[in-house]
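Dear colleague,

Thank you for sharing your sequence with our group. We've completed the structure prediction you requested, and as agreed, I am returning the results in plain text so they can be pasted directly into your records. Please verify that the sequence below matches your submission; if there's any discrepancy, let me know and we will rerun it promptly.
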Amino acid sequence: MHPLTGAGTDQPISIATAIRRLLVPLYLPAFFFFVGVGMLVPTLPLLLAEFGVSYTAIAVGVAVVSVGTILFNLPAGVLLGRFSNRVVTTVGALVMLATTLPLVVADEFTQVLLLRLVFGCGLSMVFLSRVTLLGEAVDVEHRGRATAVLGGTMRISRFFLGPALVGLFGAFLDLRALFAVAAAFQAVAAVASWFGQRGEEELRRTETPRTNVFQGLDVARVYLQPRVAIASAGAFLGQFTRAARLAIIPFFGAFVLDLDASAIGYITAVGGALDMVFFPLAGWMMDRLGRKFCSVPSFTVMGLGMFLVAVSDTWMLLLIASAVLGIGNGLGSGALMTLGVDLSPPDRISEFLGAWRAIGEVGELSGSVLPGQFGDSVGFENGSMILGAIGLFGGLLILLFVPETLKKSPARVQKSA
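Please find the predicted structure tokens below.
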């Protein structure tokens, strides 16, 4: 049976039914994956600090996972073109498990670096397989909301539940034992992926041909098309701005306003909470109004939020700026993923998304590093202004040069007429 039609009919089913059918094969494994990933957010810096290294080295240890994902996004896309989504997802989960559990006994800084680098490769396989399955199983008219639900699931599990579980288990477990708990979530995710995707072929709207490596690599020609090249630049700027917003608030709070860790944590949490609240609206806007109705406001609001950071001279203004940045990021929940799926060739979806994800990861890594460099060179106030200008430029780029990818069916056009 077609995943987006009812039994014995070609009439499209509701978005609620579509999401319900993807609950076990897609959303449930993603939940377990990213709870485990989220548990590493507050614990990994503490582990690295045990080795007596500098703050810069700790930052490198945290960021090296992004290097792994960047390096493996293209190979992961080729693997998804050659093997089933179920196999690639499960292997990725096992890689994440095999590189998280040894953190319990790791006794050298270089060991942790290597484990985190390989962990990034597994994370790339898992994330890309989630987006590819969604693109293969959900048609364009439901894709925005389905992607927003995936983005919301990852946000809640990674940035809220994962760290919250660290606080819960940390009350009676030592630091090293927490990595075993995180590994347990990766193990559950691997099992959920293997058994939850047993009917994977039935989820696909069309049979996706399995490619060899050389056929998969020819997707580079697609990126030479002007609209795809410009859209990928937008994806780079989008991920850059999102990562920069996470970095600039702690920097500005600590080094400009001289706030303590508790105040900065509260300010950051407010932005994160609003981010999670807005993802359902983002999905509705993408499917009803268009992808650009999410991307452009998201860029614009985050750009304005950066300008507000630049003029913040009290903790309350910085709190408001964090809230604005959270709203802006929430409005774009799933927007770049959806745009990438919409633009991908039907017979090269995984390879295309591998390259798309690699471009976004480079933007994310750049956005994590440059705010600190701006602080050293021009000051955090001027640096925030530059970041705001970059955000507004990204929104303008998508508004003027990226075509709308939401295509309404004839029945829906008649209904809306």
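Summary note from our side: The chain has two domains: 12-197, 217-406.

Kind regards,
the structure core
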